[in-house]
Amino acid sequence: MDRAEFVIVANRLPVDRDEDGGWRRSPGGLVTAMEPVMHESQGAWVGWPGQAGIEVEPFEFEGTMLVPITLSADEVELYYEGMSNDTFWPLYHDVIAAPRYRRVWWDAYVRVNRRFAEAAAEVAAEGATVWVQDYQLQLVPRMLRNARPDLTIGYFHHIPFPAYGLFSQLPWRRQVLEGLLGADVIGFQRVADAGNFARAVRRQLRYVTRASGIHVPNPDGTTRVALAKAFPISIDAQSYSDLAEKPEVRARAAEIRESLGNPRKILLGVDRLDYTKGIRHRLKAYGELLEDGRLTVEDVTLVQVASPSRERVQAYMQLRDEIEQDVGRINGDFDTMGHTAIRYLHQAYPRDEMVALFLAADVMLVTALRDGMNLVAKEYVATRNDNRGVLILSEFAGAADELGSAIRINPHDIDGVKEAIMTAVEMSPSEQGRRMRALRRRVREHTVTDWSRAFLATLAASKRWQGSGG
Ligand code: G6P
């Protein structure tokens, strides 16, 4: 196997397995983000194929060397469902659900992180750049640095980093901070996340921090500087805008409106079925507006796409039951023969269909209780070439830092969400245009390619700077 100058290490490979055992590019944003960088360098991608027990040798896919990591069924349960998604996920999203701290999960997390680090160390060429992605792999930067001090190591945290008062609950808080500090640059979505991380490092490890620099002691008594900074992720805005121009997609949008009985306004929510997304808060506000008679099902329909996610984790199973009960109640109370209050879809859709839904929707509801970024907000905006449509956006989503012209809400304030929905439904076309133009400008001027280039340029510069003796 050829060694690579540039290596991505992520929990998931950028491909999914199809029915006949072949591989197909997965739709995720990270895959798109990495495409240009991968093509410029001889890239490799280390990751899990997404199913337990699959053993596959490294193989080439569209010019990238893919290095599959095998996880046993036990490891999927302990490392992925347990430690990653029942401990870190809820803890880092402000304990909206209660994190569980289990030592067997932690042990598996360490073991699996080591496997990823070893695979990356093996595939990386002398002096290569390795970019580790997200909370499933927080120990990999340190493990890699120990094994391969010649590498330049970046890490990007796609989800929030919590306030120290919450982070300090973690029994393994020191190991996690030390793990992350193995990187030369540690990227976060928001300035506030980078600040929370630096504070945790000061409080827990007593290291000195200056602006975004963290002084990390080396084993030989010298120090190096690791950078902790915000690099808000984005989307490939042009591809969404192009899809929105396709005649088939536009026809599909009209068909969707028609099939919903041509309501005056369509409200839309698109989320993974996750308790961080505030889906129940949104249903509550909408149900009360119907109850109050301020909206009627003849006028308005809410389409809620909740794509299946982490279905073997208890908190997700419970949330699904609760949402389905809420939807059933609201529809039972308010549907008529010809109109429905909520069209609920527990399914995942290809990108074309999502864009058709975005075009059909007059109002996009993003009511996350906590979210690293929320790319759906950016995708909606990118498809609105007509400068129409209204985005309602939670201040607890990272996207709120950039999308100031959205209608901003606190999803916990149900009356506030109700008012925001009414404002959106009644907004004049000229006001929609004024806001949408500003939103679109931001999304078009800061794309996912800008994101990866900015991160990698900072990473390259940090290494040069360390190399010159600081
Ligand atoms: C979030 C995380 C990603 C994760 C994705 C889907 O966006 O930041 O790391 O891949 O959710 O979750 P899953 O558990 O299916 O990978």
UniProtKB/TrEMBL annotation:
**UniProt-listed Pfam families:** Glyco_transf_20 (PF00982)
State the source organism's domain of life: Bacteria
Specify the protein name.
Trehalose-6-phosphate synthase
Q: Which CDD domains match?
A: GT20_TPS
Q: Which residues cross the membrane?
A: none
Q: From which source organism is this entry?
A: Microbacterium rhizosphaerae
Q: What is the lineage of its organism?
A: Bacteria, Bacillati, Actinomycetota, Actinomycetes, Micrococcales
Q: Which family does it belong to?
A: Belongs to the glycosyltransferase 20 family.
